[in-house]
Design a protein that fits this description.
By secondary structure, this protein is α/β, with parallel strands linked by helices. The protein is built from 9 helices and 11 strands. Helix 5 runs parallel beside helix 6 and helix 7 packs parallel to helix 8. One of its GO terms (cellular component) is cytosol.
Length: 226
């Protein structure tokens, strides 16, 4: 039976996708996410979110301040990266004007279509430079607000796997700090994560979409030689 290491704890339905395909799973959280306190701006017309962590931290702060309705009513448009981020924003009552798979695609869209608008960018301490650098280059007004912090959570793992699932560049760095990829296939959630993995192995595969389920599907396909 092929074995897979997931560098984040999976949900039960995600585990089932592997186990039902006769793939053995080991999992751990390679990174830790900590929400940080921040001041919620009074007027947020256009909001940018590039991860579910950013959305969850934002609304945790909103709820702690008992300000859900006023904040939702003040946000006219949301721009985000990833299907799951979009779904989470909509579940919380916000309108998503544009969703892209990657931050680079979103930055290009904003420059092309919203050059005269102002944005609030809710992000983590380790975030891609794609959006802020592109907005600065094109003199687009924005305020960056750190709403969560990512910390590496290294763990020495004394075994080899047929595939390792990576979900962020930070996850790759965390794993590599204590382990080697060796002959394992590095299945990555997107091109940014894959770029980090390629520093350590040539055996890198990118999922079709930037979702956990797509990473799992790609792993199952490769391990079952489909």
């Amino acid at each position: 039976m092929p074995t897979v290491l997931a560098t984040k704890k999976l949900k039960e339905n995600q585990r089932s996708l592997l186990l039902n395909a006769d793939v053995s799973l080991v999992e751990y959280n390679a990174i830790k996410i900590e929400f940080v306190p921040f001041t919620i701006p009074k007027n947020i017309v256009n909001a940018i979110f590039t991860s579910q962590n950013g959305v969850n931290s934002f609304f945790a702060s909103v709820r702690s301040n008992n300000a859900t309705s006023p904040v939702i009513n003040s946000i006219k448009n949301c721009f985000c990266v990833g299907e799951k981020t979009k779904a989470l924003l909509e579940e919380n009552g916000l309108k998503v004007m544009k969703m892209t798979e990657y931050a680079s695609e979103l930055s290009e869209y904003l420059v092309k279509n919203h050059k005269n608008d102002t944005f609030h960018f809710f992000c983590g301490n380790i975030r891609s430079e794609e959006i802020p650098s592109k907005l600065k280059e094109n003199n687009i007004s924005f305020k960056e607000i750190e709403v969560y912090r990512t910390a590496l959570n290294p763990k020495k793992i004394e075994r080899q796997f047929d595939a390792i699932l990576f979900f962020s560049p930070s996850g790759v760095r965390s794993f590599i700090s204590e382990n080697k990829i060796n002959n394992s296939a590095a299945i990555c959630i997107g091109t940014t994560t894959a770029s980090e993995a390629k520093k350590y192995t040539e055996n890198v595969v990118i999922s079709n979409t930037t979702t956990v389920e797509s990473v799992i599907a790609k792993a199952v396909k490769i391990l079952n030689n489909e």
